[in-house]
Specification:
This protein has 421 residues and is α/β, with parallel strands linked by helices. It is built from eight helices and 25 strands. The mean pLDDT is 95.
């Protein structure tokens, strides 16, 4: 069995940043395991710009952004194994993986950083009636076909869901000569960034139908059209609002799911709100020495935040190697999601954290002129006005370690959105 101080599972933007963070914190025995044939993860197919504005203060394409981190990994001499699929991991941090080059391997890690990313929700999860005809793709699959493999998925396109990948593919399909008829969103608000709605739909006169969904799929061998309808507040189609749309392609942008099968194998506690691990302010999971970061922890809106978060996970793993400690749950205070708050990370914070704590969450709905607050009992730790909050954009703020240390130990932290009167 091979012994490695820190094993990072995943060589996408999260894994690369975690490796760099661990190295810069003093770790030298690091190994990245990546199942694909190249580092970079999903960024390899994201050829549009808009990456790096927070991290590098300039606009980069996905491959350019990833290459900055790949270059740093190579500069530091951090080893990685490509085409290496992790099959199993246990609570003792023994990893079983397989590859053509090395065969079946078992690796005993001192610390593990989980950076497996996320996957798209498929058609089967939607239960939409219709034949299993060709022409139905997840937005990410269509992006790979167009940007990496040079295939044209179709010529008349309807997009279901308004996640960022779907919005970006509306523009991309338009660029390559397809007619994007409309984007259909079941919620009364978009799930993507405002800038993507403007730059990818509005700029190309592509209509966005809110509170609508696809209720039927037509075609036996190839998709010939879809039926859309307006939905009520309970997501039920409203009779009489049906529209038939002729198309040969349906792109699904209906949500991302963190890939936590390995986390479950290791006995990591998962949050029902994020579908990722429950972590503390160091991004350590319920399994001591096992950390999680990036989209496997919670789905982010910007890769810049993935990199920042993952760097912290790598540094925390390096610190754990230097001085392992398994703090019990009683040594943490819980973070409670109050009014309007969803998918908050971290979910627990030490009574005496070593550093300021960066918090992230998604609003449950659209709020205008609201106030974001964090409090322990009557003590307000943080308060900020927000002109507008929406589920498509994450809320970020920082809690000062001094405030957390001085607060009463038996009280939780409550994060909430206070709506304008």
């Amino acid at each position: 069995m091979k012994n490695v101080d820190i094993v990072i599972i995943g060589g996408g933007p999260a894994g690369l940043a975690a490796a760099i963070g661990a190295y810069e914190a003093g770790a030298r025995d690091i190994l990245i395991l990546e199942r694909e044939n190249a580092l970079g993860g999903i960024l390899k197919q994201c050829i549009h710009n808009g990456f790096g504005l927070h991290t590098f203060k300039e606009e980069l394409t996905g491959p350019e952004y990833a290459q900055r981190f790949i270059d740093k990994v190579n500069e530091y001499g951090i080893p990685y194994q490509l085409n290496s699929m992790v099959l199993d991991i246990n609570a003792e941090k023994v990893i079983t993986c397989v590859s053509h080059e090395h065969g079946v391997q078992q690796i005993k890690a001192g610390a593990v950083v989980l950076c497996m990313g996320c996957r798209e929700r498929p058609r089967g999860a939607l239960g939409t009636p219709g034949e299993r005809c060709s022409g139905i793709f997840t937005a990410g699959t269509a992006q790979k076909l167009v940007n990496l493999e040079g295939y044209m998925p179709g010529k008349k396109v309807v997009i279901l869901g308004s996640g960022d990948i779907g919005l970006i593919m509306a523009r991309r399909m338009t660029f390559i000569g397809a007619e994007v008829i409309c984007c259909v969103e079941v919620m009364p608000f978009s799930g993507g960034l405002k800038r993507n709605i403007v730059q990818c739909l509005d700029d190309y006169n592509i209509p966005l139908y809110l509170s609508h969904t696809v209720i039927d799929i037509h075609g036996k061998d190839r998709l010939t059209g879809v039926t859309i309808a307006e939905v009520d507040s309970h997501m039920n189609p409203i009779p009489g609002t049906e529209q038939e749309i002729e198309c040969d392609t349906l792109l699904l942008s209906v949500g991302l799911l963190p890939e936590n099968e390995l986390s479950e194998m290791a006995g990591v506690e998962l949050s029902p709100n994020t579908s990722g691990a429950v972590v503390d302010e160091t991004l350590q999971t319920s399994v001591p020495g096992m950390f999680a970061a990036g989209n496997v922890l919670h789905v982010h809106d910007l890769v810049d935040f993935v990199s920042e978060e993952s760097e912290l996970a790598g540094k925390s793993a390096a610190n754990y190697i230097k001085q392992p400690k398994a703090e019990k749950a009683e040594n943490h205070r819980k973070v409670i999601m109050g009014n309007g708050v969803n998918a908050i990370v971290p979910q627990q914070i030490s009574f005496t954290p070593d550093h300021d704590v960066h918090m992230m969450f998604r609003p449950r709905a659209v709020y205008k002129g609201a106030v974001i607050t964090a409090a322990i009992g009557e003590k307000i730790l943080f308060s900020r006005k927000a002109r507008i909050l929406a589920p498509g954009e994450m809320v970020n703020f920082t809690l000062k370690k001094e405030d957390l240390t001085e607060a009463e130990h038996d009280l939780p932290i409550t994060i909430e959105i206070k709506e304008a009167a």
